[in-house]
């Protein structure tokens, strides 16, 4: 069977390289590169994307072997109807391997037509590292690579303000645009790149914070043979995502002229303040994902869809979202109810297998950023603990024991965190530590939660009680018990 590449594919238009994209991952390809394709089809945007990898990865070579082409399946509800469609995305012109072709990167910095820089380097990507040097080819961290790129551009156009860029990071970090600009300026100062360059960063470039939303489980490992047979060609970069999408970009109104999304059907908004969109999305959608993961997985389920359609898990998720997360959010109640309803429907998407284990990556820091604010707000508002969220936190501690029955759980978190939990659970198993001791030690750890959670009234005893119940009767029975006593 033939592989997908330009020789085996129909003729298609090649557009000027107007976008530099840091990240070859599933999400950016199913979201940004798809949006660029829509813009090219429906407007005079006329732009293609050059992809660079933020870390060493052989995916960039695979992207070039396929001439930037890949197949995107978009599956889910659209305008109230089920839609299952696929298309070849043609908007990527090429990938540059920064580790072998750094010169090409420097050359791109001098191209007049380049205007946008987009990134998604996970929550770990926007960081400063004093080890990075301008002379490194490439600097190790993403903001270091970006600073170097902007400096080459500044030099190529002798500091001319009309050749700056619009920089839109997509990392799920609060104020990602401002944060990225801060780190770029930190590198500029650290590398002594001069006041003229720093002024050019401020005057010629626009850093926009942005919020992205589309569930992208990625490569369809489960159904690859079936999909390959349907397509009639091999595609190693196939990606599956849902139909729903939202991109909220915080920036000046004139960006609408350069990114002509109006009238294209794209749910991309250019706004003055994205805070309300971010808070509700992170707390409801990501919060529910992160909270359901240890509970459902320990219960014996594997995917989001199974969980939301399950009698007890479904109830757990609905109660958690509607009675614990939503009441802590600001905004018109009808809008919040509509949004949470839509999220629950998206979780039910029958086409998509979204594995809990893939969501479980770095669950401790995710609980901290996505669910802890809800817990704190709930306690502040009501003076009581949110019992579903506390049950989820209890299951999270149990999840990090690393066992589902006799199975080992492939935990994915940073090694210090994994070691911390392993040591504590071993002590409990060897009767050197009581459950309450484990709970107190974990909840008091400021490195995990950025605060001492034992200061929250009754939290230690509630989590200890849950864990003792789980030890005695298992997560299944413990959850059933919680459902029975909560819904009378
Ligand atoms: N998949 C989704 O449903 C979805 C939806 C919205 C947002 N996101 C966000 O997108 C990010 C990537 O998701 P994906 O599904 O594309 O994953 P992926 O594994 O396909 O891609 C990960 C990308 O991040 C880069 N990366 C990883 N760690 C990095 C680090 N420390 N520094 C710099 N770059 C790093 C990789 O090189 C790669 O380009 C996630 O952090 C997630 O929060 C994902
Ligand atoms: O991608 P992560 O690992 O940060 O989080 C897992 C999911 O919650 C996330 O990918 C959502 O599906 C996504 O944020 C939806 O827009």
UniProtKB/TrEMBL annotation:
PANTHER family: ALTRONATE OXIDOREDUCTASE-RELATED, MANNITOL-1-PHOSPHATE 5-DEHYDROGENASE. Keywords: NAD, Oxidoreductase. This is Altronate oxidoreductase. The keyword Zinc does not apply. Belongs to the mannitol dehydrogenase family. UxaB subfamily. It comes from Metabacillus rhizolycopersici. Its EC number is 1.1.1.58. The keyword Transcription regulation does not apply. NAD(+) binds at residues 19-30. Residues 17-259 form the Mannitol dehydrogenase N-terminal domain. Pathway: Carbohydrate metabolism; pentose and glucuronate interconversion. Pfam families: Mannitol_dh (PF01232), Mannitol_dh_C (PF08125). It catalyses: D-altronate + NAD(+) = keto-D-tagaturonate + NADH + H(+); D-mannitol 1-phosphate + NAD(+) = beta-D-fructose 6-phosphate + NADH + H(+). Residues 273-470 form the Mannitol dehydrogenase C-terminal domain.
